[in-house]
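Fill in residues.
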């Protein structure tokens, strides 16, 4: 019987119960916890829904400055990355086609372009550490020990 992709973690457990020669099942891999990070020099202190709303507005370029007047510098992840997919779904609430239409409209209205796409957590953290108004999404484990960025909220 074919196993559906969503059942990849279930089938070893089913086989293990029926056959002693099959190794015990390994736990299903957990998706990494993703967080939005900002520069530690950024005094932005809102939390919860207010923080999420501010990040969404800044990312989509509805606003260009943090509440303290510092210019916002949003960074995206590559469009094909799981980080960007989670950010779009969880925070922006937009599908790929909706986001593409948004950027086309913004480009036509005022010439702004989408945030720069960054391929790795390490590189994104480097950019956020360098610019006070920068922010982006990374795996929580990548932030450990980095004193130049702070977690604003988890996705």
């Amino acid at each position: 019987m074919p196993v559906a992709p969503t059942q990849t973690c279930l089938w070893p457990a089913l086989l293990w119960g029926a056959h002693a020669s099959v190794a015990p099942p390994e736990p299903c891999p957990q998706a990494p916890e993703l967080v939005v990070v900002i520069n530690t020099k950024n005094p932005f202190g809102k939390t919860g829904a207010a923080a999420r709303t501010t990040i969404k507005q800044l990312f989509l370029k509805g606003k260009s400055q943090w509440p303290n007047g510092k210019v916002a510098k949003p960074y995206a992840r590559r469009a094909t990355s799981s980080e960007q997919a989670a950010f779009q779904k969880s925070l922006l609430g937009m599908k790929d086609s909706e986001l593409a239409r948004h950027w086309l409209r913004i480009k036509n209205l005022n010439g702004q372009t989408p945030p720069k796409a960054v391929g790795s957590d390490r590189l994104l953290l480097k950019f956020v550490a360098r610019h006070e108004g920068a922010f982006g999404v990374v795996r929580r484990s990548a932030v450990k020990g980095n004193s130049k960025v702070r977690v604003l909220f988890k996705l």
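Residues 34-154 form a domain with the D-Maltodextrin-Binding Protein; domain 2 fold (CATH 3.40.190.10).
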